[in-house]
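Lecture notes, continued. The same structure-token format from the folding unit now serves as the input rather than the output. Read the line below as a description of shape only.
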């Protein structure tokens, strides 16, 4: 017996040693992100550099330039993009590595024109920021020290070369070549596969950088390698998910391997097979089932459940390679059906029509390398916390970093994913097409497992540009034909064909906005012109079109994928780019940071419609944010009240890439503006929304829930001292996924009885869960309100590192704004505080604060004039 126990112990020990040896896969990745140096090509002194990084942040770190976002610094830094730069690093290659059958350099991203030299041999000339590059370097490497050198050619000089060689001068509405001081004012961005917003946009600076913007690796391997793992959903029901793991394996020769697929979150999946590989690319399939699968739901509808899978390949001797991915199980459809008005446009998630609530998303910085994981989390979590379920990843930016998609998966945020084309025409010649086709395949394969991706969209506003911005008429005859063919080649041919092959289960639209397709009498298909009645729509009649906010009430698109209104960030953010003498919307610095034409004046014009003139700049900033929130509220609630006719509301834009006035609801430093708090209220699962229309005061209740809910609807009109002038209460059953008028009264009945300048209407929908939604409206413009002078009482309680602030007042406090100098976030802000009704708000500080009460400032609208 003893012998037997000893044998078992020894056996286990050997088994452990064997297993741990087995854990070391043949495929090895060596990070090459350290020891980097850089210099201007024409200089001789090398300086420390960061990878991932870019020229601008390296110059900044070496104190060779000032902060590009400060005051007008951007102007003085335009030389950087007309300069060639050189980067280099040295790294050691081990004896074992050098003996590998294959050595490869992997660049996850090179921005953009990069000649790569290994030990002085040119191994790559890259020309697309959006591509990954895998370069065989087996015979270029040596044992011991190796030198990797990258020459970044000026993107502007390269762009000018391409521009001059092209017969047509392609329109690029947002290429701010003048700020860029580009020779002949040439708009070169369409010719370069580089993020368009680098060249300036109507919310961002023009800073065209270069650099190694993503990770670099040396990969060694001998036998085979897993290129890709895709989980394909063959069918999905509440009881069973039928799935196939498609594993793309590259082999150096014919060989036999064992492929195993396991899940890493205990769904009980373990499936394997033995495969004979041919030399080259092999696609292996393993089918498996998951009983009672957990579905991925968007925020508000259920858990956003994420599965994690791991594929392993091994031969009889050793583990060869592994690959892990996460995915979610859900079905997604885009319904574009004819109806009496036009053509619908809505998403059906797991069989349920979903009203899409959210915003457009732009890159968080001009220099992506300095966007921290915390920043990503802050933006996506803020979308989640504001009850959003969709973000549109806009086409003038980048295919985002992995963390963006992981966070959207985690927080249940569906992604409307543009391909990276925006507001330009592109030269779709054979070189360009060959380049972008690789870009498409790589990016689709890289992110297609993410359940959050709900839609692929070819581009931003290019179809609209051709239809409405006179682009077509800029060209005649053959040239006109050529630009249209080029457009079609990318968005109507290449992309749908590639998606059919690599991601056939996701919907695709060629452009946003886009009306959809209809059938001609002869059976051929035709494109429906862009309009509010069909497809998605960008509603810019407010702001660019200068219409008032109530325009949103009278014009309802089927899916509003863009609309917006600007505001300035708060004073704490302003202080990071301006000095007190700049504190005026007409100062040169404030105008410089405003990129949407006369935007600062436009804010003022709209403000004058509805608000009294703020007494100073800081008050202007606050009233401007209240104004933006008010405008967005009109749009958001109008869109929701009109569901299911309208099934989506994505305002422009959630985030910022620098400190500036813009349409954002969260500023560059992460502060929620009033509009972000408003989104939280107006996008709540169940919404109560009062509306004065056709001489009636209608109280709508809108629900995005999957089941009905019983609640009490309390409505009252009070004066500013809290005296109740009118009151109604009603028990309601709020039907799931429905918008309904729950209460209606002729407006004259209330408006003529009371002094509209001295009353406010409050509606509250509540049940045992608590308050489902609360809303207030005034019956006249805020500037006509006879707001009383007030004292807001605050009572602060510190609890578990957070602060609970209870606010109360005996007279109406309009748009109460809590501000703390230290970084942090309030649970609610910019709300109306009714007399006699205390409200408790929580402040979540970023770091410990020594004297919160001293830092806390509370104001309301009356304090601004
Ligand atoms: C849109 C966008 C962006 C632009 C925004 C504000 O239509 O697609 O190109 O920044 O409006 O003008």
């Amino acid at each position: 017996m003893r012998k037997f126990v000893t044998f078992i112990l020894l056996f286990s020990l050997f088994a452990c040693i064997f297993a741990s040896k087995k854990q070391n896969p043949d495929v090895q990745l060596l990070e090459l992100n350290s020891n980097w140096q850089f210099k201007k090509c024409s200089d001789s002194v090398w300086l420390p550099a960061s990878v991932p990084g870019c020229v601008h942040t390296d110059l900044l770190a070496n104190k060779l330039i000032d902060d590009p976002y400060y005051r007008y610094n951007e102007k003085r830094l335009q030389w950087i993009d007309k300069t060639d730069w050189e980067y280099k690093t040295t790294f050691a290659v081990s004896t074992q590595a050098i003996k590998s059958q294959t050595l490869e350099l992997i660049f996850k991203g090179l921005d953009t024109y990069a000649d790569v030299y290994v030990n002085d041999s040119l191994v790559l000339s890259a020309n697309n920021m959006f591509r990954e590059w895998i370069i065989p370097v087996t015979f270029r490497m040596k044992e011991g020290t190796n030198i990797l050198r990258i020459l970044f050619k000026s993107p502007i000089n390269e762009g000018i070369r391409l521009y001059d060689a092209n017969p047509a001068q392609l329109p690029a509405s947002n290429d701010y070549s003048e700020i860029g001081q580009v020779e002949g004012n040439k708009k070169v961005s369409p010719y370069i596969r580089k993020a368009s917003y680098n060249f300036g946009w109507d919310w961002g600076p023009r800073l065209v950088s270069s650099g190694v913007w993503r990770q670099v690796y040396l990969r060694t391997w001998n036998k085979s390698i897993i290129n890709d793992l895709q989980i394909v959903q063959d069918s999905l029901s509440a009881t069973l998910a039928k799935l196939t793991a498609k594993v793309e394996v590259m082999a150096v020769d014919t060989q036999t391997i064992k492929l195993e697929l396991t899940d890493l979150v205990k769904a009980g999946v373990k499936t394997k097979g033995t495969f004979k590989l041919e030399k080259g690319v092999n696609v292996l399939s393993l089918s498996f089932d998951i009983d009672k699968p957990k579905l991925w739901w968007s925020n508000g509808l259920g858990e956003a459940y994420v599965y994690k899978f791991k594929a392993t390949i091994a031969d009889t001797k050793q583990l060869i390679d592994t690959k892990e991915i996460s995915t979610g199980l859900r079905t997604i459809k885009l319904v574009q059906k004819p109806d009496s008005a036009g053509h619908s446009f809505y998403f059906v998630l797991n069989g349920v029509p979903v009203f899409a609530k959210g915003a457009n998303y732009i890159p968080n910085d001009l220099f992506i390398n300095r966007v921290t994981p915390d920043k990503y989390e802050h933006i996506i979590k803020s979308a989640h916390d504001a009850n959003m379920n969709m973000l549109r990843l806009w086409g003038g930016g980048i295919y985002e970093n992995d963390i963006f998609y992981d966070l959207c998966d985690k927080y249940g945020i569906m992604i409307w994913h543009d391909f990276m084309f925006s507001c330009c025409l592109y030269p779709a010649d054979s070189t360009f097409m060959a380049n972008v086709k690789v870009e498409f395949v790589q990016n689709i394969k890289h992110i297609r497992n993410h359940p959050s991706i709900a839609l692929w969209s070819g581009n931003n506003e290019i179809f609209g540009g051709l239809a409405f911005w006179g682009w077509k008429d800029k060209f005649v005859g053959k040239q006109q034909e050529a630009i249209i063919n080029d457009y079609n080649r990318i968005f109507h041919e290449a992309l749908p064909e590639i998606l059919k092959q690599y991601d056939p289960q996701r919907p695709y639209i060629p452009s946003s906005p886009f009306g959809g397709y209809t059938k001609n009498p002869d059976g051929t298909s035709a494109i429906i012109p862009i309009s509010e009645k069909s497809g998605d729509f960008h509603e810019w009649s407010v702001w660019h079109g200068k219409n008032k906010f109530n325009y949103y009430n009278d014009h309802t698109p089927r899916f509003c994928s863009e609309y917006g209104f600007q505001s300035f960030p708060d004073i704490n953010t302003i202080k990071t780019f301006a000095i007190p003498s700049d504190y005026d919307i007409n100062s040169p610095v404030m105008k410089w940071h405003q990129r949407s034409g006369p935007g600062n004046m436009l804010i003022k014009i709209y403000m004058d419609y509805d608000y009294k003139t703020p007494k100073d700049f800081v008050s202007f900033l606050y009233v401007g944010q209240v104004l933006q929130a008010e405008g967005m509220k009109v749009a958001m609630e109008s869109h929701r009240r009109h569901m299911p006719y309208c099934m989506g509301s994505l305002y422009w834009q959630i985030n910022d890439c620098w400190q500036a006035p813009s349409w954002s609801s969260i500023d560059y430093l992460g502060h929620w503006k009033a509009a972000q708090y408003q989104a939280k209220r107006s996008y709540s699962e169940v919404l109560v929304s009062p509306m004065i229309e056709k001489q009636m005061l209608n109280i709508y209740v809108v629900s995005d829930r999957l089941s009905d809910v019983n609640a009490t609807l309390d409505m009252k009109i009070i004066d500013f001292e809290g005296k109740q002038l009118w009151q109604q209460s009603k028990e309601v059953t709020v039907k799931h996924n429905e918008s309904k008028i729950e209460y209606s009264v002729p407006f004259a009945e209330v408006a003529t009885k009371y002094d509209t300048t001295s009353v406010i209407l409050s509606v509250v929908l509540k049940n045992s869960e608590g308050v489902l939604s609360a809303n207030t409206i005034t019956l006249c413009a805020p500037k006509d309100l006879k707001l009383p002078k007030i004292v807001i009482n605050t009572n602060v309680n510190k609890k578990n590192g957070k602060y609970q602030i209870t606010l109360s007042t005996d007279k109406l406090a309009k748009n109460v704004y809590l501000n703390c100098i230290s970084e942090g976030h309030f649970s609610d802000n910019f709300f109306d505080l009714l007399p006699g009704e205390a409200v408790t708000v929580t402040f979540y500080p970023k770091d410990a604060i020594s004297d919160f009460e001293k830092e806390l400032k509370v104001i309301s609208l009356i304090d601004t004039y």
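Point for the exam: Residues 201-203, 396, 423, 460-461, 538, 562, 596, 652 surround beta-D-mannopyranose (CB under 6 Å).
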